TrEMBL record:
UniProt record similarity statement: Belongs to the isocitrate and isopropylmalate dehydrogenases family. LeuB type 1 subfamily.
Binding site for substrate: R91, R101, R129, D218
Nucleotide-binding found in the keyword field: no
Site, Important for catalysis: residue positions: Y136, K186
UniProt protein name: 3-isopropylmalate dehydrogenase
Protein residues bound to Mg(2+): D218, D242, D246
Isopropylmalate dehydrogenase-like domain location: 2-343
Length: 347
């Protein structure tokens, strides 16, 4: 079990350390953790947010545990050198196209979300976000027009094979859950989305048991707070999935709770919380590490087939929350280390 550990910037190292403690406590046979530099931390040391040596570590491992990257003091750099390029580069270089972002309400948190408890308690959904295409990876630039105005531009596109493979991820996920797949797009305005919708319908023929529906992204944002219990699996593009998953996090209590898996074909994956480097609380021991700990559980399940161990971690997090262990993000007072201790104690 060779796992790359890329902690990154801001709260990344703080939350990753707690997830590492949990992995080490499980006494997994052959566990080997290999650290590597990413993000602003890597830029300061090596002059690049994703050094070749880091990429080599990633390629030599079976999975990556990732913290977060992002450092506002480096936002003046050309885009290719900015910290975020580390995670974008890993996603692209390693073909991590399927981003699974589950959201469910833990027992005891029903009254602590941004929604009314009776609305929140019904949430158990999975966002399947495409991660290798869309406006994030299209051509982009800034130019000055003939009339002297500056213009920024980013190309949004999806090729049919890119949509098809994430469609299969969505349908397969739905088959293991409630057999409902909602494809979120903006086909009333965007050609990219029209193709997306057409391909979703084509692929649905291979999954007759799954009920496929379509929803425009603006409505989806509204429905996510109005009646989130209607969703089982949501499949969507890179940009819409990024935004909707941050929103979903507050529907279940906090962004500090939402884990993710970024999967390639096969079992390789990168596992990270959905949040960023949170510079506003970095270095203070205030970050909630549960999203990263739950990401480690997803790693054991998806990359190593260790379902029982994954459930053990998830149950330990659920038990800590049920016992009232909460960070500031949930209105509690527990710090990063204390939350890690509480999860370990229940493991
Ligand atoms: N995958 C990645 O590495 C990501 C990196 N980023 C980067 O992170 C930096 C900060 O971005 P923001 O937009 O501020 O998003 P963010 O997710 O880092 O923070 C948003 C808000 O949520 C809070 N928060 C986030 N994680 C938390 C946790 N575990 N416990 C408690 N509170 C938490 C923060 O304190 C902040 O108030 C930027 O440089 C951005 O580009 C953003 C998202 C993903
Ligand atoms: C590159 C990241 C900053 C994008 C993001 O916010 C995410 O993947 O959640
Ligand atoms: Mg995001």
């Amino acid at each position: 079990m060779r796992i790359a550990v890329f902690a990154g910037d801001g709260i990344g190292p703080e939350v990753t350390a707690q997830a590492v403690r949990v992995l080490e406590a499980l006494d997994l046979p052959g566990l080997e953790l290999v650290e590597g530099d990413v993000g602003g931390a890597a830029y300061r040391k090596h002059g690049h947010p994703l050094p070749q040596a880091t990429l080599e570590i990633a390629r030599s491992c079976e999975a990556i545990l990732f913290g977060a990257v992002g450092d506002f003091t480096l936002d003046h750099l050309e885009r290719a050198l900015r910290p975020e390029q580390a995670v974008l580069g890993l996603r692209k270089e390693l073909g991590l196209f399927a981003n699974l972002r589950p959201a469910r309400v833990f027992k005891g948190l029903e009254g602590l979300t941004s929604l009314r408890p009776e609305v929140a308690q019904k949430i158990d959904l999975l966002i399947v976000r495409e991660l290798n295409g869309d406006v994030y990876f299209g051509e982009k630039g800034m130019r000055t027009l003939d009339d002297g105005r500056r213009q920024g531009w980013d190309m949004m596109s999806y090729a049919e094979d890119e949509v098809r493979r994430i469609a299969h991820s969505g349908f397969r996920a739905a088959m293991t859950r409630g057999k409902k797949l909602c494809s979120v797009d903006k086909a009333n305005v965007l050609e990219t989305s029209q193709l997306w919708r057409d391909v979703m319908i084509e692929v649905s023929a291979e999954y007759p048991e799954v009920e496929l529906t379509h929803m425009y992204v603006d409505n989806a944002a509204m429905q996510l707070v109005k009646n989130p219990g209607q969703f089982d699996v949501v499949v969507t593009g890179n940009l819409f999935g990024d935004i909707l998953s941050d929103q979903a996090s507050m529907c279940v209590g906090s962004i500090g709770l939402l884990a993710s898996a970024s999967l390639a074909e096969g079992t390789y994956g990168l596992y990270e919380p959905i949040h960023g480097s949170a510079p506003d609380i970095a270095g203070k021991g205030l970050a909630n590490p549960m999203a990263t700990i739950l990401s480690a559980a997803m790693m054991l399940r998806h990359s190593f087939g260790l379902e029982a161990e994954a459930v053990r971690i998830e149950d330990a997090v659920a038990a800590a929350l049920a016992d009232g262990i909460k960070g500031g993000d949930l209105g509690g007072e527990a710090g990063t280390q204390e939350i890690g201790d509480a999860v370990l104690a229940r493991l």
